Fold these 4 entries.
Entry 1:
Amino acid sequence: MATKHRAAPFLGILLSGSLLLTACGGGGESEEPAANELYKNPVTLTWWHNASQDGPGKTYWTKVAKDFSAAHPTVTIEIEAIETNQLQRTRLPAALLTSDPPDIFQAWGGGEIREQVEADYLKDITDQVKTEVANIGSASEIWQVDGKQYGLPFRMGIEGIWYNKDMFAQAGIAAPPTTFDELNDAVTKLKAINVVPIALGAGDKWPAAHWWYNFALRACSVDVLKKASIDLTFDDPCFVKAGDDLKTFIGTDPFQKNFIATPGQNDPTSANGLLANGKAAMELMGDWNKGTLETVAQDPAKLTKFLGWFPVPAISGSAGDPKAALGGGDGYACAKNAPAECVEFLKYIVSPEVQKAYAQTGVGLPVAKGAESGVEDPALKSILDATSSATYVQLWLDTAYGSTVGNAMNDAIVAIFAGKGSPQQVVDAMKSAARK
Amino acid sequence: MTSTQHLAGGATASPARPVYRGSGRAAETRRKWYEIIGLTTPAIAVYVMFVLVPMGFAVYYSLYRWRGVGPPTQFVGFDNYVLAFQDPIFIDALRNNAIIVVGSLLVQGPIALGVALLLNRRFRGRTVFRLLVFVPYVLAEVTVGIMWKLILTDGGTVDALLKSLGLGSLTQAWLADLDVVIWTLLFVLTWKYVGFAIILLLAGLSNVPAELTEAAAIDGAGWWQVQRHITLPLLGPTIRIWMFLSIIGSLQVFDVIWVTSVPAVRSLGASGTMATYMVDNGFFARLWGYGNAVAVILFVISFVAALLFQRFLLRRDIEGAITRRVG
């Protein structure tokens, strides 16, 4: 069969070969000037972000870098835009092992930033960014470890259900569901008009896992959730209940056929494609979804007209806070030995004016107060309102618990969707991964 | 041994070289060693740097519990290897690899042989046919993966084709049904790589001397008899080499599986191979030490398979080239 099988050994080598860099990486150019010498010596900041596809996001970051260099001529910024998974899973971990990592780079927060801090990779910026943290508010906590600030978000939003208003009207659903009973009712009505009620990209695992996260958010108290993120203990029975509730929900058959092989986004056969092209009525997805739906929509103008958003419904009588929401964001952090200008640039990125213009690109929701007026799309506006009125925002569980537990958890949840796993197995998988 | 001494002597004696010129074997041997060293050093350096050293590192890292954050410090011995063989998904990956190894041999072999024998006859448009047969192999793996993913999707081309033929009952969730997906992938792999087997066999066929087949024909042998008693035996070495390449390729197969089959189906053990399992766990679950252990297991299995195959099946074909010193 295969003779062109270079990839497998190559990847094996990559796993170890990239680590060779540890030994080979020479001394960097980061001779750190004292803080009082800010902007005195010429410095070059390398910036790794994940807006790798041509579009408003990538264009905007280029402009931000240019504007900053114009205001501070001693600072040159070299951008490298890398696709998210590559950046986060291979390039950054490998670069951080060397003595010459990028100065400012994408940081997801949560479990990942905790590991990076423990390895002493990141610059403690607590004292320099007090104003910014105060302006951003509780969202900045995700980039904190033990009370110290190591990064700042530039985008943050909660997830909810994106839906087709026309289909809802057609099925006779008067208002977006606010409880799961109403959601089940809506599912029945949508089936009656022969529409796939909910599109699910289980093929990519995380879109399916997010349903479990939401059931966990409803089943567990905020204290339990907070503790789980720090200690990685999942003994509370609410984590099993989340799986039970999910199983019951899957039992109502709300998703399209063969969802286990449906990708999440980025292609016409994905769950995004189903919603964007009028083949399904709902999809659970994060605040970035507007942009990704547009890329797969045959008729983006029509999409904008029928697209609506509502928060994940509450479950009556459950232990969780009904006003709590799941969310996440993107931030940047500075490498430990990055020049002091790095922090200044980070502060610039999250300043209200820059954030407002970011919001106007429609790429994501801003985090800084004073940037809200940049959000123009009505669906995005409703997310912004819901985000600010949420009593507690729980970071995506796979990010909060780190890649290892996150991956094991997602796999076990997917098994439930495939009819193979059990609620108890999810918790067992999380516990055993925490020891791996 | 003597040659090494010559070598050492040669290095110091080189200014005096003209004196010895033409004086016989010593200079000749020395020159030979200069050539050998000069010509192989770059290749050996690259091989050591990019094959042996990373392999050594892989073994080293595989003995640590290491998440790729900071240098590896937590030595765990062979725990990672034990963990791998305890993980049912890894066992599933081994099974899937076995299906692909055996399936590729059993399906591609006969097809390739038949097509090669047909294409070896003279007929109009033979060149075009040969070219077409080879096209899938030339396509990039990722292109092939995406193409088949779209063709095999629910209500995609394959389903539509079956329905239009009145075979609607045969439509399957080709890539979603956990019991079907590995066979679907085997089909895609066969489609992709059978062209390579055919080209290899055609090359082998062109080496079968025409005199032999002509002589047989004169003696009254029919086409089938000629193929059975002359062509096939002479094709033996080519077939064995193809089997060898196919087995190693099947053990290490990655890209087509990675692209065609979604992460969820892989994580359920239905379609993953050792190589995809390695990347899923090494990078996506961020278990770098564990990922390296899987890489080493994959290497050892491929290496042992290669050695066994060479020992028992390729022995005659490579005799002299590898197994014995050539005078």
Note: Chain A is about 45% helix and 15% strand.
Entry 2:
Amino acid sequence: MSSDATYQRAGRLEVRALEKRYDDERTGDSVLALERADFEVEGGEFVALLGPSGCGKTTILNIVAGFISQTAGEVLVDGQAISGPGADRGVVFQSFALFPWKTVRANVAFGPKMRGMDKQERRQLADEYLELVGLSGFEDKYPHELSGGMQQRVGVARVLANQPAVMLMDEPFASVDAQTRMTLQEELTRIWQERRPTIVFVTHDVEEAVFLADRIVVLAPHPGRVREIVEVPLTRPRVWDDILGNDRFKETVHHVLGLLKAPQVTEQPTVEAET
Amino acid sequence: MPSLMALRRRAVNLLWFIAPFAALALVWVVAVELTDVPSRVFPALAEVWSAGVGMVADGSLWQHVGVSLQRTVTGAALAAVISIPFGILMGISRPVAAYFSPILRFSVALAGIAWIPLATLWFGFGNRAVIFIIFNAVFFSLTYNTMLGVSRIAPDMHRAARSLGAPRYRMFTEVYLPGSLPSVVTGLRIGMGYAWRGLIAAEIIATSAGLGYMLFLARRFYHTDIIVLSMIIIGLIWLAMDRFLLAPLERRTVERWGMVAGATR
């Protein structure tokens, strides 16, 4: 589960000295959104990117997804530098981003359809993944007919059915209610254990990160940078009923919260005033 | 098989749809009766009815309606085939959409009737001038709304498709076209509204057949019964087109998908 695994699975992600500068069109200044981020995600590993807003976690995800380009550094998936979005990196969005004009099944079958899989085959594949996320019986519904939690299950199935090397998740459960969120988190760990996709999960919720991940990349803001990478010492399977009372869970949450709260440390000489 | 309940509901809906027209007809009958207005000024309902029966019997009504509908369909189809791809292309790039937006809004305001003089200069008096007016009325509104629809597709939708492996050329049919459909339907409805008015005006001026011509010809002979008959038919055909063509299009796509149509002119 950790980096000393004896074999290398596909789906290894390397983020090397990644930097992103934006030009502020109003002032003409360039703003450093992300400063030299370095980390690796092993094939089949579950890593969370955690931090407050302005820490560059979504910037990292958008660069890895190929939606925006970095100003320096590189991103490698299984040793290959990425360029632009691609089917090797599937994204689960906070907004779900399901196609409202397609049925649930057609949404899940979209990636395979783009790969040229024939209709019968991709229909079967979609139904299989819908079963995996517990949505059998909803294949012919349209997304707007489902609850938010169910829509995001479709979002997860849609990415998994496309068998990407890396699954990127951008605060995927931030817009569902707390009860549903806990169910979805448990479901996600179950599915991850079953299928072992590589997952990069962006969140600002400490407990969520600790509950889900093998390792947490804790980020600090202004400029966004990696603060520390924390190993999560919890066994699997994980369910909230057991985890909430678990001392190691509490200790890890406490430790990570400390990292997020700690004042700016001395390694940065000066920090200019906030914009 | 629709259930009895559904049939009943449909019948009730139809009654509510007809009720205001029935009321209007009643007012008409009573008003003509009371004021004894000469039929050269305004015809009685019965006169319009018998004029209608006469024109149905000798086939002239169908001829005019047929010509008008044919022109409408030709012009609108031509516009749709050109406007939708054109609007999508412009909408893909936000700067391009922003650049063309004012000129298109300007053109939407002018579309249709204001072009009749130029249309007759370019195409002479006849079918082609009328079809041009219809094309023109639908074209600007549909192009503008398609463009707007594409530029309003959520960026995440675009990103999702690309990261699921959609190549750029497939984005047209997989994302841009369905994603802009609420707006396309709105554009078509508005454009058809302009086109229908434009058609009547153009037929009055430019041809010797069609509903507009029928209206114009009747005026020359003080046939107020035929004038009013033409007006009624023009309105009824529009209602029928909206109810049996445009509304079902909206129901089968936008409403079924839970997408809200943005009313944009």
Note: Chain A has two domains: 10-88+166-245+257-268, 93-163.
Entry 3:
Amino acid sequence: MERVPILKIGEILLVSIQVDMSDQTAVALQEDLAERIVATGCHGVIIDITALDIVDSFVGRMLSTIASISRVLDAETVVVGMRPAVAITLVELGLSLNGIRTALNVERGMELIAIDRADYDHDETGDDPIPEPTASP
Amino acid sequence: MALSADESGRLGELLTSRAEQVTQRWTEIMVGQLRGRLSQAELVRQVQELHRALLDALGKGTVDLQAEESTELRAVLAEFSRGQARQGLSATETATGVFALKEALLAALEADQSVETLRDYVAFSALVDQMGLFTFETFVRARESLIADQAEQLLELSTPVVKLWEGVVAVPLVGTLDSARAQVVMERLLQTLVDTGSPYAIIDITGVPAVDTQVAQHILKTVVAARLMGADCIISGIRPQIAQTIVALGIEFGDIATKASLADALRHVLRLTGVETSRRQPRREA
Amino acid sequence: MTSGADLGRPQAQTVGSDEDVVRVRQLVRTVAVAVRLSLVDQTKVVTAASELARNTLVYGGGGTVEVIAVDNGRRAGIQIVFADSGPGIADLDLALTDGYTTGGGLGLGLSGARRLVDEFDIQTAPGQGTRITITKWSR
């Protein structure tokens, strides 16, 4: 069985799915990723699906599960690079990928995680109430 | 309807011995009919080519247009009618260009008025009729593909996706949106989001006269698809009648941002991105 | 890639494992490309095939998938038959409802796949296995 490699780049785990995954491979990725999040202490996971030419309900469910698991492990997951044809098909299939954050590409995904962590760190210091988005500190 | 081997041979002989007379008369008829829309030289070339192809086929002993030996002849006829279609000639003009051969043959046969000759003429005519009908069919097919190509080009032309701002693209929709066009527009919009890396898209429907359930569904699906890809859509330019239709049809726009004009939509997006920047770089604002 | 010659002939793939579902997807894509389905339609039919092949494996206990290029005179298309001799489906209406599942999935396999194709035909009865035929035409 093939395994999908997980790369650590700075504070982020990057998973770039390059193969047509069998269901087993998808389940293995789910497990590997949970372990790597704990082992590395990363707070961000980016799953790049640019190379996937389809996402069916099984892979869709895997993505949702990964997002939920990483949330429990205090990491934010962003799925990036979904192709237009895949997105159109998912809508037709009725799969909404609830709870998954998405971005157009890896770069935007990293920005999203950075913004999140910045907010989070801000909360952690706790000296100010969360500022209104429009008000500058 | 096929010629007998003898008839085929005699037609070949006639076309060879009276080649000049036949092609000349044939060309004259076509020139008269087209009244200068194609140059004389062009018509002479066409007639000679058809004449040569017919002779070749007869030389191989063909007795029918559908026969194996006529493959070359069919190709030449097809090329001829495609050419006429592209030049904007009508189907009738194209087919009568071939039927003109009958009159030319009749002129060539006139000297000899025996019963055999008449019988031959009828047989030859049948072959020419086949050729004419074949031309007609090819012509129609050529025109159909021409129209399909143009329709596609029109579709491309009528659905521009423009970059409005850094990270913002817009599709100004103009004209009636049928299901096919809505689909093309939406696919192009989503592809442009990927190609330009733009996280915001504005769909402006100011120029759309009416929205039915299907079109509304297409727009909604696109918005959801864009979201799955990590981009946000704003719909602008909803006119009062369309707003009424949308409500009357019971279409839920849910939490999709709608703005009155393209300008409002752009302002909305800029405000959103502005917030993002100020959150990312709080010091610059301070 | 598939040559034109064997396009008209059905190509079969047994479904007995996970990897076979991947093979079904690849086979369906090859034929879908050969009959010139648009990219979106290719994606839709491959996704539908993936859902149904998984059903054949999980609920039908394995079976076969047959893929064939078809032509109705006006348009070319792809037809896929999923057959198993598993327990069959007792309540078809219920099985075709969004969100209904007996296998711990999302319950979108059957109903979702039906939305992704142009024609969807299902023959099943308890104890008789299940046979699903789907068709997608080029535009």
Note: The radius of gyration of chain C is 14 Å.
Entry 4:
Amino acid sequence: MSHAAARPRARQGTTIALTILALVIGMGTYALTGLGKQGRVPANLALYGSLFAVLFAASLLVIRRFAPFADPAVFPTAAVLTGIGFAVIYRVRGDLAAEQFTWAAIGLAAFCLTLIVVRDHRQLDAYTYTIGLVGLALLFLPIVPGVGQVINGARLWVRIGSLQFQPSELGKVLIVVFLASYLNAKRELLRLATVKWGPFRLPQPKHLGPVLLAWGLSLVILFVEKDLGASLLFFAIFVVMLWVATARPAYLVIGALLFAAGAWFGYANLAHVQLRVDIWLHALEPANVNLFGYGQLAQGQFALATGGLVGSGLGLGIPYRIPFAWTDFIFAAIGEELGLLGTVAIILLYVTLVGRGLRAALACADGFGKLLAAGLTAAIGLQAFVIMGGVTRLIPLTGVTLPFVSYGGSSLISNFILLALLVRVSAGSARG
Amino acid sequence: MDKQIRRLGYALLALFVLLLATVSYVQVVAAARIADNPANAFRQLVAEYRVQRGRILARDLTTVLAFSKKGAGELKYGRHYPDGRRYSGITGYYSLLFGRGELEQSQNQFLSGNAAELLPQTLVDKILSRPVQGATVVTTIDPAIQKAACRAIASLPHGGAVVAIEPATGDVLAMCSNPAYDPSDISSQDVPQIRRAWRRLNADPGQPLVPRADAQLFPPGSTFKLVTAAAALENGYGPDSLWPNPASLTLPLTSHRLHNFGGEICSGGSHITLADALRQSCNVVFGGIGLKLGPDRMAEEARKFGFAADTASGDVPFDVPFREGVFPTPSAFVGQPASVAFSAIGQFDVSANPMQMALVASAIANDGVLLAPRLVTQIRDSQGQIVKTFEPAEYSRPLTAEHAHQLRDMMVAVVQSGTGYAAQIPGVTVAGKTGTAQHGGANEPPHAWFTAFAPAENPQVAVAVIVLDGGDLGSDATGGRVAAPIAKQVIEAALGISGGA
């Protein structure tokens, strides 16, 4: 690019300015929450403010040193989401705030480390199957007897010693990397080896293997781990990446049909899928609102509705009455205290992240980078949509975290690694 | 691939637009309906009780009728009524379980801080994360008159009610009912206590939660003759017009005969004047006047004084639930003309309460102009700034100034030399009218009424009193003997005269 040489300095200024803004918004939210909750600014505001400032500054230095041409908005957007998440977790579960900060610190460290280690995203293209196998292993680790843990009806946790984590979060990132590498290598084959059937160019039956394999794996996640959210996300990301790689709409159609079949099969055979649908449809009926499962969705709806346009004010609502307000339902807690203004702001932040991510994909020169950025972006966008749509009752609720906002170490660390890869692709693409 | 990436962007954007529409729907469009779910009651209550609800003040701005202060429970603020029983008919209650009454209900938007007029202050509070405070409601109630009114009816064995109005403004100076209740009992945060008190109040046959002063209806008896007399004056019969004065009146189409109170004959010969008939409260004469005027003209005059056609309708504006008096629609008299005679003396289907009869007196006192009753004058925000003022409003003109003065003079005669002598106050000209209303069976003691205003030449206060079931005197009770002394005490309090007794 001819004008690329003039851009780096200005973009870094933008990154710094936006990150300072993110810090001010995050810590401002924290301060106001303390004011509303206890009538005074939290005593450790200065401590957390300076710790976040140091962490953000370190991340900016790493970006400047190792990814100078990075997209200026991606990191600050994630930073502001992290800051707001920290404040809201302090609001609904004050006891978890310190932990969340620790996870954010580790996440930012992982972000820096990823940028330092992965100097060029094309390095990853060399380890296609290694990465794929590790990703799959992480996805299915919870099934292994002895290490797998069932929490809230889903087997998606792993315990090793005293350490407990959700490996599918990191597995998700690795599988996107694997798919980008694998599909980029095979895309010509998957694209061209087709048979014509009516208006569609269908892939030859032997090339349907990968799709059916992915479908089968997602059904295993659904049936064995009972993790509706991960199953849905995994399959959707796969189909989207396959379609982007091959430009064959037929894959979308086949994917949709397989999804419908899987959904129907799941609905017909799994009580917890039936329950999810019933909760979705009947959460607010008077006979149900106090039942387990229905109650959390109903409370989320009440919180959002009571929040109204401008919300109760930070620290002035009762979001702590929403079950899981620090994880799956954090969006409803934000809606209660910040109102529609707050929820729209959160949604727009994800729109920004998605927009910048896809822009990096478009600007990237190599097919692997394009697929990687598009896949990572789709992963984060779809996950945000699935949980926000579930909490607002747009779609049936499937328990996944709200990226960067929800409480949880596995989620924060994985998402910061994902972010680092996105920043890496954006930096690489600008360099051309 | 770029085409697909762009399309992926549009697809994800579409999903987020769908999400934006959904949050707008849940948080704004359908918010009220969703939040209204009974299962969300606690959230709404906590939100409501988180606001320091505004105070309700008397007209002196210092006497506090209701206020909120921080409590210990999960609900942040508790509601307190310093002299609850005395002001319950004005403040109403503010209950966790049973909603709100009276001003607590009608002024809720201001008291809770939600009214549009308070938005600037509320927004400032929200931005500064300061707790939102409710606005103060300033009433027209005069604590001294209210105290005198409540004391005067406190010991009545079957209860009663009093209303005092300033005729020139419609300001309600006092409004007291017996039985009353203490709103603190059902406005506490002690759920079992609230339920016990609520059950007890609802089981009370006197219906303390429905104040007798303005929300229940009783036959007004002879106090209604003021309306009949006004109708006569408005239709061309002066105070000196002569009316037949037989011992009893034969009613058309029936075998009933209408007698005077106690079966007496009014003094003055075979024909007496309108003024003399009012002074002596002659049922026979007023029954004849009613028959002469007919249901249309009677109903027209009653409407101007605020009487409604039935118990369900009515359009006199008031800040707390007010059941206007009832005078039946003229078609109700078709085929039973005799009923017009009974209606003209405040019997048959005519009903009223002290608020209604105080309005009648206040219109006569105010040169024939009836002002709508007013209970709230100002709303002040938490900083003491006036954010809304309610001006006096004319409701109707039931009679001309000339006729009003004629009726006033007739009412002065009632007190000076007629049935209302017990309301005389040395040095003050009192204009009044008694009423003794039969109700229920023949052996039931009557309701005793008195309605009055004073000073007659420059009226400061109009009063109406009802004493149920004859008070202490039972079947011997009359409005003059039982109710007039109560009206006298209230007028004395309003005029700043210390009572002689």
Note: Chain A touches chain B through 58 residues (CB under 8 Å).
